[in-house]
Amino acid sequence: xxxxxxxxxxxxxxxxxxxxxxxxxxxxxxxxxxxxxxxxxxxxxxxxxxxxxxxxxxxxxxxxxxxxxxxxxxxxxxxxxxxxxxxxxxxxxxxxxxxxxxxxxxxxxxxxxxxxxxxxxxxxxxxxxxxxxxxxxxxxxxxxxxxxxxxxxxxxxxxxxxxxxxxxxxxxxxxxxxxxxxxxxxxxxxxxxxxxxxx
Length: 199
Description:
Blueprint: H1 2-46, E1 53-54, E2 66-75, E3 81-85, E4 89-93, E5 98-106, E6 112-121, E7 129-134, E8 140-142, E9 147-156, E10 171-180, H2 194-197
Parallel strand pairs: 1-7, 2-10
Antiparallel strand pairs: 2-4, 3-5, 5-9, 6-8, 6-10, 7-9
């Protein structure tokens, strides 16, 4: 009798431990999938890791201090695009809104969709670098041989002047890297049924 009770208790304990382990594994898998979008959201919200912020409007004033903004463009392996800024650098007053154009050419013989990731260096100025509009916010689909002009509109927040760590800052580099996106599966046309054609 006691043996039966002990066996039942042991079975319940084993099932409880197994269920807890299953929940833990499921939670870890969920956290792994959620970590990338959460990290991306955190970077975009705080400017962490040199991620520029997204702004809805321009600042209400400019400072006399100017910075050199350099533009870096890259294409990841496997993407046959040519991608470059129309100018390599500009001088910009802090708080001044700038519009810079990039040109991209799809050198492949087929349509390709890609998107640009971005950051600024030094990384600690990401929280002061604000984009009002940018081609990097959306996917870009180019037809074979297509050339496209793309724009980024940005400013450096005047609050950077209050950050003593940035007193010696004179250059910011804005970098883009275009990477290829997986091709969406296209529906296959249905072949007519031979039997139905006889009807």
